[in-house]
């Protein structure tokens, strides 16, 4: 429904101007005000300002159900997240750890914006605004004891982590093909056998898209697929397909379980 609405708006110049004007009004006036109110009230903020809301509503329940099932075992549990921004997904994992009274979430992020990042993210980098919001969010959510932030690039941190040391890995970093594939290859090594590697922003399977167009534009962040008329992340789709082939996915969230002789699907 959302995709059809987006297509309809883009086809109508009049509707597009109205939506764009409303969005600009929201971003300029309402969104920053909501952000400031949340900061004063010591409540978490995941709105549009600074692109703080990075976890789609339709994916949150899928992610929550999966991590709660994985936390049922008796052994200690270590979660690693690559790319956190304002901490929305990290708080989801940490909330599950707190509920199940086990587990710790290690978060890797530079809290900087890539070259092709939206303007809101670039705005968030100034004066450490987004990192301060991350700290505010985890504290106001009551899970700061369950989250350990590691400030640095995913490439650098991958070099110092021990193989087979994490039970669950979630990748939501740079969406460009080159970096996304590098993160997949680097971090599958630090995942334990029977552990799960997962990630965000896989809106379409490669067999659904215009594959030639996707490969030509795989270093772009977010584009419209001419075949399906759905917006998606081409770099994520191509990288995941090359590394794993078909993966378990639901509502843009994907996951695979590491076994001794490769990878197997996960019930989502």
Write the layout of secondary structure elements.
Blueprint: H1 2-11, H2 13-41, H3 57-70, E1 78-82, H4 88-100, E2 104-109, H5 119-125, H6 129-140, E3 147-151, H7 154-158, E4 166-171, H8 177-187, E5 191-199, H9 211-216, E6 223-224, E7 231-232, H10 234-244, E8 248-250, E9 253-259, E10 262-265
Cα-atom radius of gyration? 19 Å
Name the overall outline: globular
Instruction: Note the gap between the termini.
Output: 22 Å
CATH homologous superfamily caption of the largest domain: Vaccinia Virus protein VP39
The low-pLDDT segments are none
Q: From the 3D coordinates, which CATH architecture of the largest domain would you assign?
A: 3-Layer(aba) Sandwich
The CATH topology of the largest domain comes to Rossmann fold
Largest sheet: 8 strands, mixed
Number of strands: 10
Percentage of β-strand residues: 15-25%
Oligomer kind: single chain
Number of helices: 10
Overall number of domains: 2
N to C succession of SSEs: HHHEHEHHEHEHEHEEHEEE
Structural class: alpha/beta
Helix content: 40-55%
CATH hierarchy class name of the largest domain: Alpha Beta
Task: Kindly report the average pLDDT value.
Answer: 90
């Amino acid at each position: 429904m959302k995709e059809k609405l987006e297509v309809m708006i883009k086809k109508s110049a009049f509707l597009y101007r109205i939506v764009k004007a409303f969005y600009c009004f929201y971003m300029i006036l309402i969104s920053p005000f909501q952000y400031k109110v949340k900061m004063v009230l010591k409540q978490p903020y995941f709105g549009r300002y600074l692109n703080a809301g990075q976890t789609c509503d339709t994916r949150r329940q899928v992610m929550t159900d999966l991590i709660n099932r994985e936390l049922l075992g008796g052994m200690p549990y270590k979660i690693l997240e690559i790319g956190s921004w304002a901490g929305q997904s990290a708080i989801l994992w940490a909330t599950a750890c707190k509920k199940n009274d086990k587990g710790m979430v290690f978060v890797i992020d530079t809290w900087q914006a890539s070259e092709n990042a939206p303007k809101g993210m670039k705005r968030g980098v100034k004066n450490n605004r987004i990192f301060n919001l991350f700290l505010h969010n985890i504290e106001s959510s009551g899970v700061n004891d369950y989250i350990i932030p590691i400030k640095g690039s995913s490439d650098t941190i991958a070099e110092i982590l021990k193989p087979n040391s994490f039970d669950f890995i979630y990748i939501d970093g740079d969406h460009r093909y080159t970096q996304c594939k590098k993160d997949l290859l680097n971090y599958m090594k630090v995942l334990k056998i029977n552990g799960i590697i997962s990630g965000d922003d896989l809106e379409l399977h490669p067999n659904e898209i215009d594959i030639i167009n996707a490969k030509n534009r795989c270093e772009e962040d977010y584009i419209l697929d001419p075949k399906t008329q759905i917006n998606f992340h081409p770099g994520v789709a191509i990288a995941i397909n090359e590394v794993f082939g078909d993966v378990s996915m639901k509502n843009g969230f994907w996951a695979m379980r590491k076994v001794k002789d490769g990878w197997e699907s996960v019930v989502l």
